[in-house]
Automatic annotation (TrEMBL):
It comes from Zobellella endophytica. NCBIfam families: 2A0604s01, secD. The keyword tRNA-binding does not apply. Pfam families: Sec_GG (PF07549), SecD-TM1 (PF13721), SecD_1st (PF21760), SecD_SecF_C (PF02355), SecDF_P1_head (PF22599). It is a multi-pass membrane protein. Keywords: Cell membrane, Membrane, Protein transport, Translocation, Transmembrane, Transmembrane helix, Transport. It comes from the Bacteria. This is Protein translocase subunit SecD.
Amino acid sequence: MLNRYPLWKYLMVIAVITISFLYAAPNLFGEDPALQVSGSRGTQVTPATLTQAQQTLSEAGIDVISAALADNQLLIRFRNTDDQLKGKDLVAETLGEDYIAALNLAPSTPSWLEAIGAGPLKLGLDLRGGVHFLMEVDMDEALNRVQEQMVQDFRTDLREQRLRYSGVLTQDDGALMVFREAETRNQAMSYLRGRYPDLVFSERDSGDNAGLFAVMSEQRLKEVKEYALQQNITIIRNRVNELGVAEPLVQRQGAERIVVQLPGIQDTARAKEILGATATLEFRLVDDSADVAAAAAGRVPPNSELFRGRDGRPVVLQKRIILTGEHIVDASSGMDEFSRPQVNISLDAPGGSRMADFTKDNVGRAMATVFTEYKPTDERDEDGSRQFRKDQEVINVATIQSRLGRSFRITGIDSMAEAQNLALLLRAGALIAPIQIVEERTIGPSLGQQNVENGLMAMVYGMLAVVLFMTIYYRKFGLVANAALLANVVIIIGVMSMVPGATMTLPGIAGIVLTIGMSVDANVLIFERIREELRDGRGVQQAIHIGYEKALGTIADANITTLITAVILFAVGTGPIKGFAVTLMIGILASMFTAIVGTRALVNLIWGGKRLSKLSI
């Protein structure tokens, strides 16, 4: 018998290795030290910005490889890191505070490889460098927001039940409702207790007034804090995805803190701005009956508040909030019919119903869109936590022309960049509570480069040892195994370069080293089985055939059990563990392909068509 493969199997092996090599090739070209310039707070990066930066660098005698403007960002490539550092200082000083200049490493991938979507491996924080943030959630503000919502809900409920009250306000850690009569207070208590079982109600009389005080139960307090933390984690993950960071790490630490790691981040200031921004929208009716001049002088009606528009003009709005940004499920920037920037908003079902019911009864009245943002201040509380300043401005006032539904738009935005930034924040979600960055660590590219070199040296030494052993012990068949081993590494790197979101870390390099040994294990099983068949007196071709056929079951069993373990690691692990699991899964599949199909193709090609009396194994 002769061992031969059909033509399609050879073509399949060649195609897999060729495609893997093409997508692994960008890793051979390295990266250039670069500077990335982007606008701050909606500032546009224009061709004039590019010219100004180039002129500054030219006057300083700094030679650049290239400078290009794309996606409202300027990317300047340098020949060495010394020029990169000097260029950053010069460009930042020249362009001023309206622009953010950040150090970067730009891939040197040839254009023909970029045309097929090939790019270098994305490296993790330990290999590429990047930023580590430790963030703390302001739980006091989360509880304050719940209290404010309680007050709004109580006012609405009492009006609907026609229970007359003197006032509803926040007090201590709860909400106080004031009534003129004890009987009305008792009716309100009876109704609200059934409606809000997670609140604790008690009587709180003062003088001639009957008071009803509501406070959250201990269980409800725990739920609010847990929800605030988990929701902030989810929203930060969404914002990281919007930033386009590969394989980020976002996880909780303790009861109030969140760890965020951004490997290879290109724009640190932009990341801090997006991650820490607590922005949302509020929709309120304009108080048409209020005297704007009197309100600006300090005489604001009791049920209204004074705001400022973007032009500085005062606007009096009702305290009642029609809708908040929590009901926004999607937001996108665009242009209106007059080529002015706008943000298109989609609401969830409850938000759409609330907006439809309200606007149906208020056609012809003016509704304002209020942009709310919480910013950290230098002041701190007694416990040392940072205080936040609540900045609010009216970005749009429009007359309700008809009943609105789940989709509508807001206008009055200054620039397209600002519209995109607002849409990003609203699409990713509004943080339930403000967060502050309590710790920030930057891992430099030089330390990451040292980790890369150490990891590569470990992999090279491991491969050399395996190659030497296989060549000496299995002779020509050892060379076949070594060729499969090299193909295995190429396939792993090629697949990881192709898979979106796959990131190489130090544990990932360990996974590659592990799969190198596993790949050789499969070849050892096959070769030893062939040796056994030859010792039993089988012919060369028959021994090869039986060796591959009989070893297949053992190889499959061993690799499948390891693959199951890798899947479990990926499912329950985080960060580096996930990176190790991904590399291990790809390596297992690649080693099975190269050991079972790849080496068989080479063996059949070299020895399969010949009548041999002995074999070099």
